[in-house]
UniProtKB/TrEMBL annotation:
Ranges of Polar residues composition bias in the record: 1232-1251
Entry GO terms, CC: plasma membrane; trans-Golgi network
Family recorded in the similarity comment: Belongs to the cation transport ATPase (P-type) (TC 3.A.3) family. Type IV subfamily.
Transmembrane segments: 74-92, 274-296, 316-342, 893-914, 926-946, 976-995, 1015-1033, 1045-1066, 1086-1109
Gene3D superfamilies for this protein: Calcium-transporting ATPase, cytoplasmic domain N, Calcium-transporting ATPase, cytoplasmic transduction domain A, HAD superfamily/HAD-like
Protein's UniProt name: Phospholipid-transporting ATPase
Keyword list, A-Z: ATP-binding, Magnesium, Membrane, Metal-binding, Nucleotide-binding, Translocase, Transmembrane, Transmembrane helix
Lineage: Eukaryota, Metazoa, Chordata, Craniata, Vertebrata
Bilayer topology: Multi-pass membrane protein
Segments for region (Disordered): 1202-1251, 1303-1326
The species this protein was found in: Austrofundulus limnaeus
Main location, first listed in the record: membrane
SUPFAM superfamilies: Calcium ATPase, transduction domain A (SSF81653), Calcium ATPase, transmembrane domain M (SSF81665), HAD-like (SSF56784), Metal cation-transporting ATPase, ATP-binding domain N (SSF81660)
Single GO biological process annotation from the record: Golgi organization
Amino acid sequence: MFRKRPPPEEERKVKANDREYNEKFQYASNCIMTSKYNILTFLPVNLFEQFQEVANTYFLFLLILQLIPQISSLSWFTTIVPLALVLSITAVKDATDDYFRHKSDNQVNNRQSQVLIRGSLQNEKWMNVRVGDIIKLENNQFVAADVLLLSSSEPHGLCYIETAELDGETNMKVRQSVPVTAELGDPNNLATFNGEVVCEPPNNKLDRFCGSLYWRDRKYLLTNQNMLLRGCVLRNTEACYGLVIFAGPDTKLMQNSGRTKFKRTSIDRLMNTLVLWIFGFLVCMGVILAVGNAVWEKEVGSLFQSYLPWDPPVDNFLFSAFLSFWSYVIILNTVVPISLYVSVEVIRLGHSYFINWDRQMFCSQCNTAAEARTTTLNEELGQVEYIFSDKTGTLTQNIMSFNKCSINGQTYGERTDQMGTQPKRLDFSPFNPLADPQFCFYDDKLLESVKVGDVHTHEFFRLLSLCHTVMSEEKSEGHLVYKAQSPDEGALVTAARNFGFVFRSRTPGTITTSEMGRTVTYSLLAILDFNNIRKRMSVIVRNPEGRIRLYCKGADTVLLERLHPSNLELMTVTSDHLNEYGADGLRTLALAFRDLSEEEWEVWSESHRFAGKATDCREDRLAASYDLIEQDMMLLGATAIEDKLQEGVPETIALLSLTNIKIWVLTGDKQETAVNIGYSCKMLTDDMAEVFIISGHTVQSVRQELRSARDRMMELSRSRDGGKRGGMEGWAEACFMGNGFQQDQEGDVGGGKVFHSPPLPSPPSSFMDSISGEFGLVVNGHSLAHALEADMEAEFVSTACACKAIICCRVTPLQKAQVVELIKKHKKAVTLAIGDGANDVSMIKSAHIGVGISGQEGIQAVLASDYSFAQFRFLQRLLLVHGRWSYLRMCRFLCYFFYKNFAFTMVHFWFGFFCGFSAQTVYDQYFITLYNIVYTSLPVLAMGIFDQDVPDHRSLEYPKLYEPGQLNLLFNKKEFFICIAQGIYTSVVLFFVPYAVLSNATQSNGVPLADYQTFAISTATALVIVVSVQIALDTGFWTVINHMFVWGSLGFYFTIMFALHSQTLFRIFPNQFHFVGCAQNTLLQPVVWLTIALATAICIVPVLAFRFLKLDLKPQLSDMVRYTQLVRQKRRRPAGCGIGSAWRGTGSVTESRLGARGGSRRSGYAFAHQEGFGELITSGKNMRHSSLGLVSFASRHSSSWMETLRRKKNPPNASGDCSPAPSHASDRVPPLSNSSSVLGGSQEETVTEADQNIQSVPASLSQLEASAENLTCAPVRPQTDSPGGWILTLETVQEALFGWKGAAARGNTSDNQGSPRAARESIQTE
């Protein structure tokens, strides 16, 4: 354990079958240890870790102080009991977690592996495998270490592996041994193998390996294609042998298992700040009381020195004050009880279990439940302002289906005939016995074209059956299983299969197909593989007749420019078809071919071989050789593949938009694809004022486009809010004057002059935040690279954050993380990232909250996430229900916790002024010990775990309820000081009321009650009753557990108090329990109960009065939701007539297809796709023989609901005219433009005169109740103002809650942003 770590390696040398040689390098063994402790180290290491927490160290310091008799007025157990309890609970939790890590480690380390030792295979545990050993792997076995593949049972030294545990990808990959070792398949031959491998040191690069094999005086290059990494599973391969290169912690799997960055919530950070403030407050109180002690000892205490001298260490009043300071620090330390931190963790754990147990977040299709993978971020789910989402596999299903195609200018695939009816699904089985029965296609014209032998159609599907890197496995006669690197390729090869061109098998040099029932074998001459830069792939094949042909498929933007000029007419027609397919939201590819002569092939083949052997810039040389041959091609047609939206995506995005959450889609797809998916999932809507596209290729052009977009936003905002534009104009004027412009040169902004002037300052955030209207922003990948530069960050953020929806296209994984970090840096808002693939991991880790979707791209995103589930639609429940509840509960818990502890502790402070500042406590030491861990802990835990203000379905129906979390309204510094003030007020009442009453009170027999113990019991009892009544008032949702804990805690208090004052304990511990029968005697006095009742009333009645007034005059959103629910129940309205059902009734999305948008194309080659298996195939290394969308987004209301609900009586200008009522916006879809106006149709506001006699809205719930008799749930419809006064309805309330009006009002939604006067529609109350 304490062995000195060897120096870092510069290179690794491994000799096969020579343990003695390899051991001198002290390479790590294959034993892994992810656990943190063992039996000997657990206690010291765990305690060391726990005392790194400031709070634990603070309480340890207090414990040490309490052990000093001169300054401690409390017994040591008042601190050590809670501290030991906290440390024990944490230690048990850590020990349990580490036990499971030990168990997992032992399970892995004790797996069996076959190791070649002295010429024979012996079973060894994984932990005993050493670097340099040769091991045998069998089918479906995990690879024990990072090994160099030496030989395989498959031809050509091939083996197939699955790497899901490494990178989350479930498709099979191919690895091949070095040819010189491929024949060493026999253990006897391998026992004599003594080759030496020199390679790179251990690292975490999963896709890279660089090394050399030296054997028999020759050198052989090694690459990642020769390696089998730990964590992989051997598939479809009987057996293989490998040489161990990296073992245990040096393997790439373990090198990538670094700890995830620890995330803290904003409440955690605030709580740390508040605790520091409380520490400061504690020191101030100690100083005040110490000064009081010094004054008292000097002025009064000196008079008693003759018979009440100071204790021996104290010789003057200053030293007495010094000791008194520390004594009061000990007594008053309960303002920050240690139980606070344990209670917070228990509450978070309970919230995590609620997420795990939520049946409505369980996906029955994939049998996957939601999982909270962390317990520290639950309340931050209720404060999210920005969501960053991947597209493919997150918003879409990543399940591709062949939908349409264009062949020689003829389009196929329409699902409706000329009569408008949908034809039947085609049955391919009579025509093709090898057809896939799950393939769906409806257009029989294409099948007829294949049957009649159309040359172009045959060549089209021949290309699809040959131009790919799909692996085929024929499990039984005619039962083919395709393994494709991407769903796109699988869909295209399956389409060719059903139309009679069946890909059967391949070898390193051949492809075998079945064409219209006839088996044809093509010679595979070359594969020009796909990558993200080329955006296309090609194959060169020789048919049985000896003709050489190149087949190519790729993105239309790169393939159409490589066509022969004779294709111009066909290219025009096909481009129109591509536009139509793109408008339908389909992923498109163009197909082409070229015939090659023998001479052309020989010349190109030689240049290709030369490029492949290059040691420097090999990829660039290969790409240049590919470009030479992929020219002058003949166009065949195009394909269109459908990637369906996941269930519930439009509804979820529309609902989240109503909560003022801004959604960013960061995708690797092309712009057209991303824009169409944006419209389909209702991120971009037809009601948006404008959608801007940022597509500049230089920093200057990107800056100019961002400024133009921002200017246009402010222009539209000023046109709507004419009376509020002065501030923005002042900013604009300052910008123009600062750049050498005159005021009358405003039109020059956006022109070339800006490029030569100093950069314009970004507008103040207040101006940009005040922009009303809904805008969309689309940013291309090359433009985003410039926008993320340091001097462009502020411009980009200010423009983007003024938009409702942002789509970034062609984004790399690194850029995804950079965008998230940018928003975190500039907006200080809570961010959430959601994705399903390995390319989303960096984004998920960068965001405050990471959510992984277990989809088609493996589980890598899930492993890196904080929360995971199976469907994007569950995000609305995670945020609006669990997140909002968690935030609400944590805030209520903290407010009450600080209140009850200040009420408890400050009594000591007031008592100090009446006890000569002698550090005497009011309560007995047992009450001080048990107050936070027994008497008041369980009720607040129950509230923190179970409380809710409205039911879950109401949280989804009223999304505006989510806004208090975003604005951090429920627990902030203001709320903290309110809680502290209430606690101090309660302490004043609890001290001075009993002090005043009992000082002159007597028992029935005339004995005075003004003794210390009676006062202590009366005050303690009143305190427990007051805080219990307060928690009862604070609890909004009562369960059996709440009742048990609240009233049970009161019962515990009286039971323990009577027990502590009983004769039984006195007989057992006569030195500890002196006050026998004091509790019984005190609580039998009526005046004591009168005192307790009076103190309770004085504490609680003001709270009740304040809450009733607040509820009546300024209710919160949740109060209004509960009130409207009660009104509905009173009037016996049908269930579901609220905003939720109106929302559900506005329409439905019968197909999850992308919405129609003109002039867009979607490439089937997405940016995130990886390189194919082309090089591997051509080198002979991989073959074996054998519902509904909302109509608009919510406006952001800066005012409260009541400010929205109230209509000002006085007009806003001298003429008496109110803000103009917005007209209905045009239904025309706003066209996309490069940062210019894309408003179409009627975008001008129609100014209408407002009524002069507007009456103010009733502002109280009592007045609302008077009108409740006429509240109805009629369909929402726009109406004009009633001429006689204000019209107040449930729908007006709903507008205030949502910023949304019904389906019929979608026409004027886009124009009534920002002003609380907009949108007057209602059902009149009488």
